[in-house]
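P.,

For your records, the input lines for the assembly:
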Amino acid sequence: MNESHKPHPTPKQYVQIAIILGILTAVEVTLYYTESIFGVFTNPLLIVLAVSKFVIVVGWFMHLRFENKLVNIFFMGGMILALVLFSIVMIERASANLF
Amino acid sequence: MSETIQEKKLLTVFKRPSSSEGIWSWITTVDHKRIGIMYGYAAFFFFLIGGLEALLLRIQLARPENNFLSAAEYSAMFTMHGTTMVFLAIMPISAAFFNYLLPLQIGARDVAFPRLNALSYWIWIFGGLFLYSTFIFGTAGAPEGGYLAEEIGWLGNAPSGGWFGYQPNASIKYSPGTAMDYWAVGLQILGISSLISAFNFITTILNMRAKGMRLMRMPVFTWMIFATAFLLAFSVPIIAIALFFVTFDRQFGTTFFLVEGGGDPVLWQHLFWLFGHPEVYILILPAFGIVSEVLPTFSRKPLFGYAAIVFAGFGIAFIGFGVWAHHMFASSISPVAQAGFGISTMIIAVPTGVKIFNWLGTIWGGKLNLKTPMLFALGFIAMFVIGGLSGVTHSVVPADTQQTDTYYIVAHLHYVLFGGAMFGIFAGLYYWFPKVWGKMYNEKLGQLHFWLMIIGFNLTFGPMHWLGLKGQIRRTWVYAEETNLGFWNMISTIGSFIIALSIIVFMANWAYSRRKGPVAPMDPWDARTIEWTVPSPTPVWNFSTPPEVENLDDFWHKKYGEDSEGRAVRKDTADQLLVDLEEDGLNPKEHIKLPNPSYFPFILALGLPLLGYAVIYKSVALAGVGLVLFLIGGFGWALEPIEEETIENSSTASESVGHE
Amino acid sequence: MSDHRYPHEPTGIETRKLGMWIFLSTEILFFGTLITTYLIFKGRTFDGIKLKEVYDIPFTSVSSFVLLMSSLTMVLAHNAIEKSDQERANIWLLATASLGTVFLAGQIYEFTEFYHKGFTLTVNIYGSTFYVLTGFHGAHVFIGVILLVILWGVGRRQEGLSLDGGMNLEFIALYWHFVDIVWVVLFTVVYLI
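Structure tokens returned:
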């Protein structure tokens, strides 16, 4: 197997990443309870936090950051495709009763 | 020359099967060529059934207000005709080609995951049989105010919601009984098969190419496999969920698509067509690939604009994800949505047009060899262009609101799927016949098949353009006498029987040639791509030595050089090259390891239809058995040894005794 | 694992791992459809009990955290294999499977509570979309736990796992992480927003 293996993070780094993930989760839960403080910004912030956790796990735990470009393209491609297609469906359904 | 296959004696619990003859060897095979052949025969069998269903429909429509089929039977027949042709004929015949040719075209021994490949096949065939078991076990209860029970008959005990199962027509209220469940669960099983194949083929193309087989040196057919697999990978999951929703609505009391429970029937349409539109590109891209192989070979010219054809193929695949709601123009979507999808549908005509012009450019100035594969390839171009043109007229939204649900659409879809996909497939069947079977088919019968088919086809579907614009509605079992549509409907029916005749000619040719046809040489067509560098029929190990590729159309470049004006000049070494390739191809000089056969794909696949019956009949016992098979299959698979079958080289074959 | 292939993986990625990445890309569309359906119906008004009335955010936060940590134990298992430390790998593998099981137990407990409070699969469209969405995720976790146990079993039988050959920890790890990130999205979209 001639995999040009870039070094994975060390166990210590993995634990650090896990701690970050834990903190992000704690922030999310806090945001949920303090909705009155951030008001309309609560939901976008929650989404940002979720996306950050997503990117961290995919990029580092799943090692996508360090993998071949093709795999990145395929996975990211799938994500973008899903986002675009489903946004269109959701918008269409939401606007169906407006026109 | 005979080869001896040595088996490794394995001292483990799950010894892998070792037969190479007889039915057991087919059940346990993981050889991509055998899997391809199994797909091909089974798919062709379903094609014939789908054709019979079509003939029944045409008999009913031959005269106005006919009563050959009842309304219930008619609905079942057009539903099964569509579902069969799409999922049980065209897709698996394409799969047959993909399976057989992909490793050969990229210079590999087999696909990336041979057991998964076998699993795809067994799941597919069991899924198809499951779907058709509706005729034995299924019931289509008469919905309130709908079909009378006595009208349903035997033919009517089948899904009748159309191949697209619109809600709420296909819901439990308006399609009581179990027939629609056979459809939903059956399609679910078939979808799993396609999904597995998709990521198997993508992985194979990315990781199993021979040395020097860069992506931009792959044959166009291989590229089209890639694009098709990409479409499958991203569209099948969507229909899978949609079908789960339907099954849950019908079986478990949810209301995803039922208005009275707060559900949304248009959501079904979105989810179905998000899959359904990429699906039609899945149906046509393989034929595009086949034609892109046949035209250069029989024009004795390289493909015009290789890169453009490759990129156009992917362009079609990408944009193909963005046009789905053109099937919904009449479904109360907003004018903004209609405009958007109308535009995207017009845009997709562009890469398609690019391909057509490139194919024409390939033929232009070539020395055409009008053998049967070429006839079908040329017929493909003509018929597909007609279908494409009518397709473009659909993209004009106001026009489509008149055309939709009429025979004008039926004309379009058959010109692209029959005149397009099937003609391409027939071109491929004749083209690769010598390689697969080692015999030549009969050329005269092939020509007869072609001419009967193209005449019959145009007689059947040509008039439908006019009939549709005159107002003949789809999916309706009778049309009134006063419409004066009887004459052209009769012509259409006659045409359909001519098609049937042409298929009988094809089958006769096939059967005869396999048995008594003349032996085929390794390279009967003076072809361009490396699958032609293995002996005919293909040895089980494919290539004796892994090929090393230096060019696009590598085989051609080994046989032909160019003179000062760029014309092809056959090299002096070409003839000897062919002799050497055949000699080497039949006599491997080194140990060749092949993936071992396995019982477990078959066993695992068997669990799925049982789970399907369990869901429909709410049988815990069946679910239990299905699950057990699933688990045995899964665990057995995971735990069986990877030891591989070895082919000894022929010089030691006769001396080998015992085991290593 | 290159016995029947040429030792020449043009992408430089081990074939099983590549296959798993492609498969996971398809799962994006699978879960995407489920989430989209959930969101479409969430935006509509209707009668009947809603999730907001029955859920318990602290409880679900804890089980989300558990699943997140199982990703950590998963990478630690992978790290151990890279160093050929079979003992450690086994410990972390079983830890991952255990955390996954704890998560599943939490889900089952939660859903039972919801049912008792009247939030069922068929009570309204909200119930339907919730249970189908989280149910599919749960099923994926379940399959993941089974894969991990199989992997552990294979390791015991073969006297240790390696990154080559047969059941390979790396590609199962990818599956496991994916199941985790789906929950990251679900927790936010379903519970918090």
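Two observations worth noting. Chain B touches chain C through 50 residues (CB under 8 Å). The CA atoms of residues 201 and 604 of chain B lie 20 Å apart.

Regards
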